[in-house]
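Sequence design from tokenized structure. All designs in this work follow the same two-part layout: the structure record, then the generated sequence. An example of the structure record is given first.
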């Protein structure tokens, strides 16, 4: 399969609500330090914009190192507003926003700052721990939920905090509340997450309490942020393990993956915030044959968009579980293995897998565990076994990336149609107000074409597909659209020259239509 070159960004185009276009996760940022003298040209940061709907990647030196902590937020039109690496919040000009320094201030922040000042190569490193949420029905206020480290390694004690960013009258952003304790209870190392409420407007926020099997839930609505309830079930998680807890893209599953205690999967009711235990999967780790010590554990986890498969990865392997089978544990299949590649301009040593995040095209992206210029992908997450197509080092980055990948909730999740909490939006007051559109570029095209679509109300769609139809009405190309995706890259080299109609359909119903001209 053709390898795509990506500059520190995969973009996501989302639906338009009555308040905002919801393209909050439009910008993905990376940045790492050079490892060798001749690799300084590959250090720094990069991003991309899309002027005139053309993918325009470029390097953007922001003097910001991202490590395991990484998130950003864009406005309703997908323009980057600000970002954080866990140390401070910066705007698009690389300036710290007003009162945006010392996010997470504490012993661990000072520890990271001393290393940052001494080496210039360091940043905050608590994975799966920071994300921005827009306050419902108010696009001038954003909440940053984050885990603050209160101790230094090797002992981990943290606190779940929130900070509030507000747009001022002059258009600048200011942190008006900073490092506010969400709870006095201690969280795990990573594992704060969010999911859209079943009403399609509000947000559930959750975190795991360390040393227990308890998950604490909070609710963010247009008026307040408040504690909701606690659910205690599943495995006990301790401070020694990395944890990723998250909601499936459709919000119906809640997953806790701990490096030492395995994975718990729950059913989740988005109306009530109720957890129902579904299954537990044993931990996966590699034991050194000589010392008997554990040398590799699970660090990434994702559920496919249709909830068919669970993927977990260690540094060396990607594994798949079939969630539709009776014996899920026995369905474990190895679908990806590292290739011992060494990037001569990155960290000396072989390439390893690391943190994971869904991309805008329905693929799962896997960052590298070392500083290098590559990322890997799971191309078809809803396909079984080797058909899911794990491509090791599928994506070449023009600049180094080490450990880091942005962490986002699913901003595009809608309401639970017909549920008891589906009381805010309806056909008269829709959750989305913009007409669906489909854009094609480059156009005319000879080889690879990007199909860019805005919102699809996925909760109403049962059979989303992309079709390319010739002038005789014959379907020349067709593929299913991954749920909650917003773009697809398709090879059209095999098509005859001519004009084609391109459509997004739900079964036989056309949702959005465009034109494509194929040339030699």
């Amino acid at each position: 399969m053709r390898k795509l070159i990506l500059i520190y960004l995969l973009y996501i185009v989302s639906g338009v609500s009555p308040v905002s276009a919801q393209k909050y996760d439009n910008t993905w940022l990376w940045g790492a330090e050079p490892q060798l003298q001749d690799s300084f040209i590959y250090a720094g940061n990069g991003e991309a914009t899309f002027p005139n709907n053309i993918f325009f990647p470029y390097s953007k030196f922001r003097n910001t190192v991202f490590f395991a902590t990484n998130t950003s937020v864009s406005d309703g039109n997908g323009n980057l507003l600000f970002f954080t690496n866990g140390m401070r919040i910066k705007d698009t000009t690389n300036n710290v926003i007003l009162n945006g320094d010392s996010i997470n201030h504490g012993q661990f922040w000072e520890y990271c700052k001393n290393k940052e000042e001494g080496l210039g190569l360091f940043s905050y490193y608590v994975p799966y721990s920071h994300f921005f949420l827009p306050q419902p029905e108010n696009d001038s206020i954003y909440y940053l939920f984050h885990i603050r480290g209160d101790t230094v390694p090797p002992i981990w004690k943290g606190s779940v905090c929130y900070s509030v960013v507000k747009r001022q009258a002059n258009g600048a952003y200011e942190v008006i509340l900073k490092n506010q304790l969400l709870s006095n209870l201690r969280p795990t190392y990573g594992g704060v997450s969010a999911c859209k409420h079943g009403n399609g407007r509000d947000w559930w926020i959750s975190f795991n309490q360390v040393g227990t099997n308890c998950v604490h839930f909070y609710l963010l609505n247009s008026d307040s942020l408040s504690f909701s309830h606690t659910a205690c079930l599943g495995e006990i998680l301790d401070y020694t393990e990395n944890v990723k807890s998250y909601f499936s893209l459709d919000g119906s599953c809640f997953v806790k993956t701990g490096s030492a205690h395995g994975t718990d999967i729950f059913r989740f009711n988005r109306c009530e915030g109720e957890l129902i235990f579904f299954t537990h999967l044993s931990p996966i780790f590699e034991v050194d044959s000589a010392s008997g010590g554990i040398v590799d554990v699970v660090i990434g986890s994702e559920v496919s968009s249709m909830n068919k498969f669970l993927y977990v990865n260690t540094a060396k392997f990607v594994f798949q579980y079939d969630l539709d089978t009776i014996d899920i544990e026995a369905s474990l299949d190895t679908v990806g293995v590292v290739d011992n590649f060494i990037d001569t301009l990155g960290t000396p040593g072989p390439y390893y897998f690391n943190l994971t995040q869904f991309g805008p095209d329905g693929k799962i992206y896997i960052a590298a565990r070392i500083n290098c210029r590559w990322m890997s992908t799971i191309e078809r997450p809803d396909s079984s076994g080797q058909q899911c197509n794990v491509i090791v080092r599928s994506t070449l980055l023009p600049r180094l990336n080490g450990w880091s990948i942005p962490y986002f909730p699913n901003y595009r999740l809608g309401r639970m149609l017909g549920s008891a909490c589906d009381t805010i939006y309806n056909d008269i007051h829709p959750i989305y107000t913009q007409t669906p559109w489909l854009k094609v570029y480059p156009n005319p095209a000879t080889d690879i074409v990007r199909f860019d679509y805005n919102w699809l109300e996925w909760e109403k769609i049962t059979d989303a597909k992309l079709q390319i139809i010739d002038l005789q009405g014959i379907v020349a190309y067709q593929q299913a659209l991954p749920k909650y995706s917003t773009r697809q890259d398709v090879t059209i080299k095999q098509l005859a020259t001519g004009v084609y109609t391109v459509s997004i359909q739900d079964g036989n119903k056309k949702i959005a239509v465009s034109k494509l001209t194929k040339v030699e």
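The CA atoms of residues 286 and 296 lie 5 Å apart. We note this feature because it recurs in several other targets discussed in the main text.
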